[in-house]
Amino acid sequence: MDQKELKRLVGQSAVAYVKPGEILGVGTGSTVDCFIDALKDSGIDVPACVSSSVRSTKKLQDYGYRVVDLNEVDRIGVYIDGADEIDASFSMIKGGGGALTREKIVASVSDRFVCIADASKKVDVLGQFPLPIEVIPMAVRAVSAEIQRLGGEPVLRDFTTDNGNKILDVHGWKIEDACAWEEKLNQIVGVVTVGLFAHRGADVLLLGTDEGVKTFSR
Ligand code: 5RP
């Protein structure tokens, strides 16, 4: 099966985790787009969604879903989102689509994070995919210098986030202790969000493989 088909499969399988009548947290990306399509086809009653990006908000609203601001909500039961890489401890690199900050915020108030990914995203060590770091625009140079001091090679993405910030994609790091890296990088002044989701990793991984969707839980 090609990657597109695997994304469609995991997107469909995630519908089973949606609790009818509950507010749903929705991530961002092509796999999440497949999930939103499958959600619409399922006809499940979702009173409202909290979205992690302008892109997902638009798609949800086009399908008639109500999208509410996170400030109107205390907790979210289930959050469904993709990943760029995920390791055996369910730590992830996210932000390939540039939505890492809102994704991390929504994930932080969600009881259950269901990660949907095709098999290519499962890795032994995080870091083959460049780590996205959202940065305040005036701090791009200063943060880049600090990243270089830590052995990384930052590349400025030609992109502005939904929050009006820039993204540095950092090459060259092998991330074995993801929690420690997340803490260390969070300390750099000018960094808004690090695309390492380790302290709040996934709870469930739905992995699309040629043998079908495999479910892993922690
Ligand atoms: C967006 C993300 C996405 O979850 C990640 O990039 C995976 O995207 P896709 O499902 O398109 O492969 O973190 O910021």
Describe this structure in words.
The protein is an alpha/beta fold and 218 residues long. The chain has helices spanning 3-14, 30-42, 54-62, 100-108, 140-149, 178-186; strands at residues 24-26, 49-51, 76-81, 85-86, 92-93, 110-118, 131-135, 153-156, 166-171, 191-194, 196-197, 204-209, 212-217. It has a six-stranded mixed beta sheet with strand order 2-1-3-6-12-13, with helices on both faces. A four-stranded antiparallel beta sheet has the order 8-9-7-10. The protein has a three-stranded antiparallel beta sheet with strand order 4-5-11, with helices on one face. The longest helix has 13 residues, at 30-42. The mean pLDDT is 98. Ribulose-5-phosphate binds next to helix 2 and helix 4.
Q: What structural class do the secondary elements suggest?
A: alpha/beta
* Count of beta strands: 13
Q: Whole-number average pLDDT? A: 98
Helix content: 25-40%
How much of the polypeptide forms β-strand, as a percent range? Answer: 25-35%
Spatially, the strands of the biggest sheet line up as: 2-1-3-6-12-13
Give me the number of helical elements: 6
Distance between the termini: 27 Å
Largest sheet: 6 strands, mixed
Q: What hetero molecules are in the model?
A: ribulose-5-phosphate
Uncertain spans, ≥5 residues at pLDDT below 50? none
The radius of gyration over CA amounts to 17 Å
Shape: globular
Strand and helix order: HEHEHEEEHEEHEEHEEEE
